[in-house]
Every structure is written in structure tokens, then in C-alpha cells.
Amino acid sequence: MMRTVFFKSAAVIIFCTSGLLSFNQPEDKSFLYGFLEQVYRQQKNLLKEESLYKKAIAVFPDMEGEYLYKLADVYERAGEFEKALELLEEIGKKFPSDAVSARAQLTSAWIYCHRFGEYKRAARIYKKLAKKNVLPWL
Question: Quick check: pTM over 0.70?
Fold first, then answer.
């Protein structure tokens, strides 16, 4: 039973990765990247997920902020909090008025608060977001 599941999932992954080379439409590539993202996340394969997001940034430059945010999430799940915070700060500088920037700032505040115990720093980030009216519920 487990072997058939493994071989079926391996066949789907091989099909999708070979399909990345032959598909020319952006929506086809977007579907394949999304599928591979789900597969790698279920397998908890952070290295493959990281390389997938780096490739996706090159393929979809208009979605750079979203994929940088997902890359920061990978670093956070891997326990590399400093690297995640650097990337989140980069997102805030590159996309200051974007919703991705607000999510990045919220995530960085959560990391400061819950991982490093820097509650005052997290509170400053929350207050700054509230002043921008990004978080009207604060």
C-alpha cells in the first residue's frame, strides 16, 4: 500500500517537473509551482521548497513579494529566525505600501515576541501598523 502511494506521488512529481520545461504559458507554470509547493510542504522538504521559491521569483517577477514572504516562512520553519527577519525587513523596504509588507511586518513582530522575547519591539511594530490603518482592530 505504501509503495503504491510513494510511486504514484513520485510519478506525479516527475511529470510536473518535466512539464515545467515544456509549458510556455505563465498560468501553466503557476499551477505546477503551486502543486510542487504543496507536495514539498507535505513532505516537509524545506530545501526543495526554498529552491522552488527562488526559481519562482525569477519566473514570476511580478509576484516577487509573495514568494519572498513564502521564502521567509521556510526559513522560520527551519529555525533560521535571523535569516527570516532579514528577508522580512527586505520585503518591507522593497514593497512599503503593499499588503505583503504588512504581513511581513506582522510576522517579524511575532518572531520578535514569541521567539526572542522582545515584547517592546513587537509592540512598536504593531503600533506602527495600527497608525498606518493596516490593522484597524488594534
Answer: no
